[in-house]
Amino acid sequence: MTDERPTRKLSSVVPYRMARSNAEMVKLVSLLCEANGFTLNLWRVMSAIGSFRSISPMEIGKLTTIDKAMVSRAIRDLVERGLIIRRTDERDARWAQIELTKEGAIVFDRMVAGIDMLERHLFDGIPPEKMDAFMEMLGFVERRAKAARELVEANGKAGFASIFGEDAE
After folding, report:
1. DSSP of 112-160
2. Which of 16, 45, 83, 87 is the most core-located residue (most Cβ within 10 A)?
3. Domain 13-124 in CATH 3.30.70.1150
4. Residuewise pLDDT in 10s, the chain (169 residues)
5. CB 98 within 8 A of CB 85
6. For residues 27 and 88, is the Cβ–Cβ distance under 8 A?
7. What does pTM read for this prediction?
8. Are 60 and 98 a contacting pair, CB within 8 Å?
């Protein structure tokens, strides 16, 4: 008996293709980080700090989705390197604000320029209107995936049933 089940090419499965694209881009950015003396997570923390004038460790965790312990280690490492300043609140020692030092701002700007060059290389030749549409689609997919995840996290299997349009049993 032959298998009559229709085949589906992985190359046509959107989550698979997005995961592959993301993995390749993350590897490329990781290589840039390594060339500049950073791990990817250390750069993600530095990037969050550099994107704001002043930011708390808790906000860094939310932005980067890196766990609290890893954020703390990264902050310690960046302070030791002289790239950031950690200012503790005088009224509450548990609360801190993190800022780039002058040296940190120079390193941040150099890394951002490198990432911008990688982005230009990857998307060179794509007309601006198609890039705008691509970014809109990414935003749409991200919002829908987040809403679906939250629904499933809140409702378990019934959340999937709701997404799939089935009656929850």
Report:
1. HHHHHHHHHHHHTT--HHHHHHHHHHHHHHHHHHHHHHHHHHHHTHHHH
2. 45
3. no
4. 566 777 788 888 999 999 999 999 999 999 999 999 999 999 999 999 999 989 999 999 999 999 999 999 999 999 999 999 998 877 776 678 999 999 999 999 999 999 999 999 999 999 999 999 999 999 999 999 999 999 999 999 999 999 998 764 5
5. yes
6. no
7. 0.79
8. yes
Contact 83, 103 (CB under 8 A): yes
CA-CA distance, 28 to 104, in Å (whole number)? 22
- Which sequence spans correspond to the domains of the chain? 13-124, 127-169
Calpha distance 135→129 (Å, rounded): 10
To 10 degrees, what angle do helices 40-50 and 102-123 make?
A: 110
Can you read off the two tokens belonging to residue 95? 């609360």
The answer to whether 84 and 100 are in contact (CB under 8 A) is yes
* Distances, alpha carbon 47 to alpha carbons 103, 104, 114, in Å: 14, 10, 13
Q: How many CB atoms lie within 10 A of CB 43?
A: 24
Q: CA of 119: how far to CAs of 31, 107, 112, 114, in Å?
A: 14, 18, 10, 9
Q: What is the sign, positive or negative, of the torsion defined by CA atoms of 50, 56, 62, 65?
A: positive
